[in-house]
Amino acid sequence: MSINLRTVYAFAREMYPKVSTEHVQYGTAGFRGKAEFLDSVMFRMGVLATLRSRYREGAVIGVMITASHNPEPDNGVKLVDPKGEMLEASWESIATDLVNVSDQELEQHVAKIIKENNIDVTTSSQVFVGMDNRYHSPRLLKAVADGVIALKGNVKEYGIVTTPMLHYFVVAANTKEAYGKPTEEGYYEKLIKAFELLRNSRLENGNYRNNIIFDGANGVGARKMLQFIKRMKSSLNVTVINQGIGPGKINEDCGADYVKVQQRTPKSMPEVEPFTRCVSVDGDADRVVYFFTDDKGEFHLLDGDRIATLVAGYLMELVTQAEINLRLGLVQTAYANGASTDYIVNELKFPVSCVPTGVKHLHHKALAYDIGVYFEANGHGTIVFSDNAKATIAQAAETKESAKTLLLLIDLINETVGDAISDMLLVETILNHKGWDVQDWISSYNDLPNRQLKVKVQDRNVIETTDAERVCVKPEGLQTEINKVVANYKRGRSFVRPSGTEDVVRVYAEAATKEDTDNLAYEVGILVQKLAGGVGPELTKPGSAHL
Ligand code: 16G
Ligand code: MG
Q1: Annotation marks residue 402 as catalytic
Q2: Is residue 218 located within the same domain as residue 296?
Q3: CATH number at residue 488
Q4: Is the CB of 29 within 6 Å of ligand 1?
Q5: Is 539 within the bounds of a domain?
Q6: Helices (H), 435-473
Q7: 545 lies in a domain?
Q8: Cα(227) to centroid(ligand 1), Å
Q9: Is 286 annotated as a binding residue?
Q10: Domains in the chain: how many in total?
């Protein structure tokens, strides 16, 4: 097979011309922005995915079109590597350069990538593409597919799928189906079979009730949940809200990000009994948080930290009962609530590590354990099992019930990336086995009040951090000032970091009381405005009339 790089240029010029010269960067979750500027980015990512597949000797590479929890007018794209991981870091800059060259430079630039990476363009390549249900996603999917075709690659379009489903398809295909069948049906089958075996027809147990409200954020997760319901033998009664069929927009006043950041129920929440278990997922269903309202009407959140502690504690129990020797570990980020970390270290006696924000950092670190549990507070996370763990568990399952349970859990968990639906089924399984309702779950420890702020600055990259983003090294002096402020608050902790997905600096604060937390976040926010080139109006003081 011979390819003609002229075709790439011709496609780009005629169909996907670059309409903006603004520099864009492959960030923590790929490229993201307003959909109308993304056609040329998508086309070029199709080209890059094909090259990457050839570079990886024909392994399947995934391309997911989604802007996750962003508002509906945004879209985005990210590449999935052969083992289901995020694109290797050294290729992120290749992606950035490729997207920023002009149409005229494109042909030469592609030739340069081929040469520098010794890519044999005569070999075959496979790219899987999926998209969320934004109205502009089909247009952008075609652009990706054309990018693959321009380089004579093979493209398989999965249509509307969740991000974790696409990761699953990539891994299933690359493991020659050892991980599962690379089809939508194969995915449902694998998860539902494991879930139903784990329920073992005991649908309710102790305080655990078999009903849940599922907020689909008007995104793809809602659609897929409806497919799950059709296929599940009423093993769980799920009521789906924000299904995306009404006037509601993706992530607008609903979904995991809204519920977590605003710390309130989705706006369209129906009247439900106090203490009803509810879950929210984000627009592409790779994050999940739980919540409920108590009998006084007060909102309670059970976020990624809660899920992590529940899962870690349960896995530890099973491993102990199975009398097997495996290295367990939990990976968090600086956003993890201090109370959760204390609980894990002091009560569960589970090893914990902290890494910078972004799935690739957590996933990578989790692979260092036999059973690595990772979760971001925002609800993104999963569990990875080493080959050694799988073999040890399989052997123990011959005699031990708890090891059999572990084997089924491995099938239920989407190890390739955080999967809101799989994670939810996992939490439901654990709560059912323990006989817990949300009150039992939330009472394992008390979260410290926490608050996040966004601060606009001239250039967010003036902020540099170290120690898993917990210490700010630039601009000079900022950390010293933060330390002074934090010292005034009981159980105070605060850090600042440039966002990887928005043009802002993020401030996180936690302290013993809500009032203290608000004040601490405000004081640190002001420090960022003063010392890191703040723009826009000064932050509003907590408790003032404008709040
Ligand atoms: C992206 C990351 C997520 C992280 C978030 C932080 C992936 C797939 N997603 O959504 O893990 O929590 O960015 O956003 O890595 P921020 O940098 O704007 O705070
Ligand atoms: Mg997401």
Answers
A1: no
A2: yes
A3: 3.30.310.50
A4: yes
A5: no
A6: 438-442
A7: no
A8: 27
A9: yes
A10: 4
Decide: 501 in ligand 1 pocket, CB within 6 A: yes
pLDDT tens sequence across 209-254? 999 999 999 999 999 999 999 999 889 999 999 999 888 999 999 9
* In a domain? residue 168: no
* Single residue among 300, 326, 353 that ends a domain in this structure: 300
Q: Is 500 annotated as a binding residue?
A: yes
Give yes or no for residue 358 CB within 6 A of ligand 1.
yes
Q: Spell 170-188 as b/e; 16+ CB within 10 A means b.
A: bbbbbeeeebbebbbebbb
* Assigned token pair, 285: 């269903």
Residue 130 phi/psi, 5-degree rounding, is -135, 165
The mean pLDDT value for 466-489 works out to 97
146 and 48 in a single domain? The answer is yes
> Which residue's CA is the nearest one to ligand 1's atom 3?
358
Residues 464 and 354 in one domain: no
134 in a structural domain: yes
Element containing residue 388 per DSSP (H, E) = helix 387-396
Same domain as 462, residue 428: no
Residue 498 Cβ contacting ligand 1 at under 6 Å: no
For residue 243, what pLDDT is reported? 96
Spatial distance between the Cα atoms of 60 and 342, rounded to a whole number of angstroms: 41
Q: Is the pLDDT of residue 547 over 50?
A: no
Q: How far is the CA of 297 from the centre of ligand 2 (A)?
A: 29
Do residues 220 and 119 share a domain?
no
Q: Which of residues 416, 443, 470 is at a domain's end?
A: 443
Both 325 and 262 in a single domain? no
Count CB neighbours of 230 within 10 A: 8
Is 377 assigned a ligand-binding role in the annotation?
yes
Closest ligand to C-alpha of residue 364 is 1
Predicted TM-score (pTM) of the model is 0.94
Phi then psi for 451, rounded to 5 degrees? -150, 140
Domain encompassing residue 396: 304-443
* Spatial separation of the C-alpha atoms in residues 41 and 437, rounded to whole Å: 46
Q: Which ligand is nearest to the CA of 382?
A: 1
Residue 28 — pLDDT band, cuts 50, 70, 90?
A: confident
If you take atom 1 of ligand 1, which residue's CA is the nearest one? 29
Asked if residue 501 belongs to a known ligand binding site, the reply is yes
Catalytic residue among 68, 235, 280, 494: 68
CA-proximal residue: ligand 1, atom 11 (nearest): 358
- Would the CB of 376 count as within 6 Å of ligand 1? yes
Q: Are residues 47 and 115 in the same domain?
A: yes
Give the Å distance between the CA of 284 and the centre of ligand 2.
5
- For ligand 2, the distance from its centroid to the CA atom of residue 162, given in whole angstroms, is 9
pLDDT of residue 9: 85
CATH number at residue 43: 3.40.120.10
Calpha distance 5→10 (Å, rounded): 9
340 is in an annotated binding site: no
More confident site: 365 or 29: 365
- Which CATH number covers residue 228? 3.40.120
- Give, for ligand 1, the residue of 25, 63, 288, 359 to mutate: max count of ligand atoms closer than 8 Å to Cβ: 359
**Same-domain status, 218 and 338:** no
Which ligand has the shortest distance to the CA of 508? Answer: 1
pLDDT at 546: 41
CA nearest 468: which of 372, 379, 341, 343?
341
CB-CB neighbours of 217 under 10 Å:
35
State how far the alpha carbon of 68 is from the alpha carbons of 77, 290, 449, in Å: 10, 18, 26
What is the enclosing helix (H) or strand (E) of 8?
A: helix 5-14
Residue 10: its pLDDT value, please? 86
